[in-house]
């Protein structure tokens, strides 16, 4: 799975969690052209593998399953956790016990009522030894799961764990009455799911399309759009042509498509474009075990030599923002006041000199102890943005006397042979970040074993302590304090040079109304999207 | 002849297992595992969870043991279950009996490739013959140049150009997929028309590249035959040029083409990866591509095994065809 894949995955997860936000005044402010009917066609590169979320590792599956299933909780547009199938919850003062109260009267698409027993069933299934799922870790932290009554359940943790609340997002809601006593990997439930969500599966033709019909009894109100169709189109160029020919209504654009190819009268008249930051960032990471990169001044010199805005302008056509740490700007954990490294090659040269790097033989490359400063940036093949970013960095570092080589590797080789074995000097990669700010696995000094994610071997006792503190409290102010401090330290020590946060740039057909862009994207209120009667394109037979 | 055929059939068995053994090892040599798709670079996943998944898929066992297990299943014609989330049997993904024939992947690819092969043959053979007969003429030069343009043009590029012209600008043909969204509501004639419209561009693109090879092959084969003594004899006997070419030369020039036809049998199910992905056609090429990208070993092995079997069968067909066409081989 490459980073863009994870990114996608993350989006889908987002979509999932935010899937549908409540809007109590909807009917009061309803404009006259609200109407039921019509269909939306979305292009998808990959086909879902299964619609049981806990078994799916691919974004296409989560995308579709997110329309069919709900979570216990989700995020709202302010990035706060709110109830989805849960009406409310209480957390014990020591943070160890969470008691959820579920909504009453929610029904599975086959009419059976959804209860706490279903959650217990989903929980038991995900932690079962025999369930092949990569997502069980958060649930294994639960010491005790109790169903108190039909609408209430209580989970007790071994120790307070702040990301626990959001882990009750989307993975474990399964209909007990249909699956109890069965092996979920052997049933055809993954291809014929029954959920509680705004849409239900109508048909799935492998390799061609997945067709969803609206759930008229959806507990948040019947969705306006009667049908949602995913068309499998594995090639992005073909997808863009389909968009122009009217074959699809929604797709994610590339920066060049956004700025140049859709800047025509045709697109302006027929489509609406959106833009918001993706929850991810691209970085240049150093192997901190390498003697040259042990010195903080060298890393800082490199930071001063790189012009992030130049990279954003050239690589993303301006569709992104500079990253200063591992969080997305304008979210609550983001600290806007950390040390920033404005482009300053002069300062970079000074810092290198201070660290003992000087061009003694006049060949334009700085040396120390007789060895010239040369290193290789590894990145993965097939990601043009990363390759271009590496090239710009190469050019800028040459200006301060550092010679950089770029090596492109096939993704699996890159991860298995180079990252896991720590055979790199510097890497250009990206992380997608969850909405919960916990980044224990990436920055904690205990996470440096093979296959773990602190592969740059960063170790700072204070950061370790703050990471632990941040995940042990539910108090948002305390967490904020911890993560603000972590960002200050990271910005000073620079184990990574945080480069940019790219924007998501989806395009949607103009006939589709009711889209309200928010920091978390556009799909969170999909069940409120509609097409006015006069603009409807498809007639749907019930 | 029968004993020759039996001998050839028996020879196929070790060859077949040799191919599967090599394929199995080569697939496992490539870095990355099927579980990587679920776990790689995802901080939520611990090494323990990763190991558990590997055990679940049997990936913790030595490769030779895994191959043994695979072999044990395959002799019972069991291709195993796909590693993707749906865990469907591989054979069901390739040939789902519950679906209408037209929606089964193997059939779709087979149909498109048969049609384009047919197209290639009926266009390339006349081109080859007429070029040979008029060697070095302006006609010969023009056809040679144009088939080579077709050969050199990347098929994905040609496909995109055609989609842009016929799909977007002229709006005559559907761009991708096999059926329109309103397919189910169409009458039978509408359904047939719909599918034909969807197939026009893919079949054209997949034929275009193949024309060059076959027409050049036909041309050189024809040229060789035209130099033979019996053709000279035929001419000396006063037969018309038409009779010389079509009765005497053509039949003999066609012999090597029979071999080619036999060897193209595996191509009928493979070789479609690029255009199936571009045109969004749910065939074997697309399935194979997805399988490789997700390291779905059972699926990859299933498709490779079918491919290997077809290659061997194609070879036998080529032999039989040759024997039927050429009495000298029959005599041996």
Molecular structure report:
The complex is a heterodimer of chains A (542) and B (332). Chain A is built from 17 helices and 22 strands. In chain A, 30% of the residues lie in helices and 22% in strands. In chain A, helix 1 packs parallel to helix 2 (59-68) and helix 11 (308-315) runs antiparallel to helix 13 (384-399). Chain A starts with a helix and ends in a 33-residue tail after the last strand. In chain A, strands 13, 14, 15, 18, 19, 20 and 21 form a seven-stranded mixed sheet that branches. Chain A has helices spanning 3-18, 59-68, 116-127, 137-140, 164-167, 176-179, 236-245, 255-261, 265-270, 296-305, 308-315, 345-354, 384-399, 411-419, 440-443, 461-472, 476-493; strands at residues 37-44, 73-75, 81-83, 86-91, 97-102, 142-149, 152-157, 199-205, 209-214, 225-232, 250-252, 271-273, 276-277, 280-286, 320-322, 367-368, 371-372, 374-380, 403-409, 426-432, 496-504, 506-509. Chain B has a domain at 101-293: MetI-like fold (Orthogonal Bundle), CATH 1.10.3720. Chain B is 71% helix and 0% strand. Chain B contains 16 helices and no strands. The model of chain B has no long low-confidence stretch (mean pLDDT 86). Chains A and B meet through strand 10, helix 7 and helix 14 of A and helix 2, helix 3, helix 8 and helix 14 of B.
Count of β-strands of chain A = 22
Instruction: Estimate what percentage of residues of chain B fall within beta strands.
Output: under 5%
Query: Terminal Cα separation of chain B, in Å?
Result: 8 Å
Let me know the number of strands of chain B: 0
Q: Count interface residues per chain for the largest interface.
A: A-B, 63 and 58 residues
| CATH superfamily descriptor of the largest domain in chain A | Dipeptide-binding Protein, Domain 3
What's the order of the H and E elements of chain B?
HHHHHHHHHHHHHHHH
Radius of gyration of chain A using CA atoms only: 25 Å
Task: Could you tell me the CATH topology label of the largest domain in chain A.
Answer: Dipeptide-binding Protein, domain 3
Structural class given helices, strands, pairing of chain A? alpha+beta
Helix content of chain B: over 70%
Rg of chain B, Å, rounded: 24 Å
CATH class descriptor of the largest domain in chain A: Alpha Beta
Detail the poorly predicted runs of chain B: none
Main sheet record of chain B: none
Tally of separate helices of chain B:
16
Q: Please tell me what the overall shape of chain A is.
A: globular
The average pLDDT of chain A is: 90
Contiguous runs where pLDDT drops below 50 for at least 5 residues of chain A = 10-28
Give average pLDDT of chain B, whole number: 86
Protein name (chain B): Peptide ABC transporter permease
Keywords (chain B): Cell membrane, Membrane, Transmembrane, Transmembrane helix, Transport
Family (chain B): Belongs to the binding-protein-dependent transport system permease family.
Pfam families (chain B): BPD_transp_1, BPD_transp_1_N
């Amino acid at each position: 799975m490459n980073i863009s894949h994870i990114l996608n995955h993350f989006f889908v997860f987002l979509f999932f969690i935010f899937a549908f936000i409540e809007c109590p005044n909807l009917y009061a402010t309803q404009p006259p052209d609200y109407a039921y009917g019509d269909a939306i066609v979305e292009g998808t590169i990959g086909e879902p593998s299964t619609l049981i979320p806990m078994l799916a590792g691919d974004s296409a599956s989560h995308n579709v399953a997110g329309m069919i299933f709900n979570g216990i909780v989700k995020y709202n547009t302010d990035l706060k956790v709110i109830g989805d199938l849960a009406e409310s919850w209480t957390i014990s003062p020591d943070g160890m016990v969470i008691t959820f109260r579920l909504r009453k009267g929610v029904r599975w698409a086959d009419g059976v009522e959804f209860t706490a027993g279903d959650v217990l069933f989903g929980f038991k299934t995900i932690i079962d030894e025999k369930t092949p799922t990569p997502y069980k870790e958060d649930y294994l932290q639960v010491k005790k799961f109790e169903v108190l009554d039909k609408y209430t359940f209580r989970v007790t943790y071994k120790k307070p764990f702040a990301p626990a609340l959001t882990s009750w997002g989307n993975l474990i809601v399964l209909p007990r009455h249909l699956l109890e006593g069965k092996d979920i990997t052997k049933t055809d439930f993954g291809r014929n799911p029954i959920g509680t969500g705004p849409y239900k599966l109508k048909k799935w033709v492998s390799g061609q399309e997945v067709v969803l019909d609206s759930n008229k009894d959806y507990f948040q109100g019947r969705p306006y759009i009667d049908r949602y169709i995913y068309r499998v189109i594995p090639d992005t160029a073909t997808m863009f042509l389909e968009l122009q020919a009217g074959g699809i209504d929604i797709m994610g654009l590339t920066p060049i498509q956004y700025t140049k190819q859709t800047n025509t009268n045709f697109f302006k008249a027929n489509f609406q474009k959106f833009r918001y930051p993706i929850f991810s960032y691209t970085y240049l990471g150093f192997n901190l075990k390498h003697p040259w990169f042990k010195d903080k001044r060298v890393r800082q010199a490199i930071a001063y030599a790189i012009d992030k805005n130049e990279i954003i302008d050239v690589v993303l056509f301006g569709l992104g923002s500079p990253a200063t740490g591992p969080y997305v700007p304008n979210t609550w954990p983001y600290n806007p006041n950390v040390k920033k490294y404005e482009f300053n090659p002069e300062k970079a040269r000074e810092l290198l000199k201070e660290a003992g790097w000087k061009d003694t033989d006049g060949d334009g490359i700085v040396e120390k102890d007789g060895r010239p400063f040369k290193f290789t940036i590894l990145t993965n093949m097939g990601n043009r943005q990363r390759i271009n970013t590496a090239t710009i960095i190469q050019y800028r570092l040459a200006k301060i006397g550092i010679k950089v080589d770029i090596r492109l590797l096939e993704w699996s080789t890159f991860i298995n042979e180079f990252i896991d074995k720590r055979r790199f000097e510097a890497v250009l990669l990206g992380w997608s970040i969850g909405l919960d700010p916990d980044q224990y696995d990436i920055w904690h000094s205990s996470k440096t074993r093979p296959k773990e994610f602190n592969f740059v071997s960063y170790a700072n006792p204070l950061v370790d302590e703050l990471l632990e503190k941040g995940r042990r409290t539910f108090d948002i102010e305390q967490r904020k304090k911890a993560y603000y401090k972590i960002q200050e330290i990271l910005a000073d020590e620079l184990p990574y040079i945080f480069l940019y946060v790219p924007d998501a740039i989806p395009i949607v057909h103009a006939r589709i109304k009711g889209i309200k862009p928010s920091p978390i994207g556009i799909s969170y209120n999909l069940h409120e999207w509609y097409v006015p009667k006069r603009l409807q394109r498809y007639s749907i037979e019930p | 002849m029968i004993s020759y055929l039996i001998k050839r059939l028996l020879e196929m068995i070790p060859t077949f297992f040799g191919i599967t053994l090599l394929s199995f090892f080569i697939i496992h040599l490539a870095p990355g595992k099927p579980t990587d798709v679920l776990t790689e670079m995802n901080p939520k996943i611990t090494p323990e969870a990763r190991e558990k998944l590997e055990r679940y898929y049997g990936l913790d066992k030595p490769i030779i043991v895994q191959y043994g297990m695979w072999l044990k299943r395959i002799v019972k014609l069991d291709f195993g279950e796909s590693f993707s989330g749906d865990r469907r049997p591989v054979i069901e993904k390739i040939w789902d009996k519950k679906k209408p024939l037209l929606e089964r992947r193997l059939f779709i690819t087979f149909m498109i490739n048969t049609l384009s092969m047919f197209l290639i043959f009926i266009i390339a053979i006349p081109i080859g013959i007429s070029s040979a007969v008029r060697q070095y003429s302006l006609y010969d030069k023009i056809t040679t140049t144009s088939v080579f343009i077709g050969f050199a043009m990347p098929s994905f590029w040609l496909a995109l150009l055609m989609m842009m012209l016929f799909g977007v600008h002229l709006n005559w043909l559907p761009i991708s997929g096999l059926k329109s969204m309103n397919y189910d509501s169409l009458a039978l004639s509408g359904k047939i028309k719909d599918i034909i419209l969807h197939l026009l561009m893919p079949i054209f693109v997949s034929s275009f590249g193949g024309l060059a090879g076959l027409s050049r092959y036909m041309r050189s084969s024809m040229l060789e035959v035209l130099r033979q003594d019996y053709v000279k004899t035929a001419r000396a006997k006063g037969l018309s040029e038409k009779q010389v070419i079509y009765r005497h030369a053509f039949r003999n020039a066609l012999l090597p083409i029979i071999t080619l036809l036999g060897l193209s049998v595996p191509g009928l199910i493979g070789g479609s990866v690029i255009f199936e992905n571009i045109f969004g056609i749910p065939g074997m090429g697309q399935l194979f591509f997805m399988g490789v990208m997700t390291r779905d070993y059972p699926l990859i092995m299933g498709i490779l095994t079918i491919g290997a079997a077809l290659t061997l069968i194609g070879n036998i067909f080529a032999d039989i065809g040759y024997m039927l066409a050429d009495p000298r081989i029959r005599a041996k």
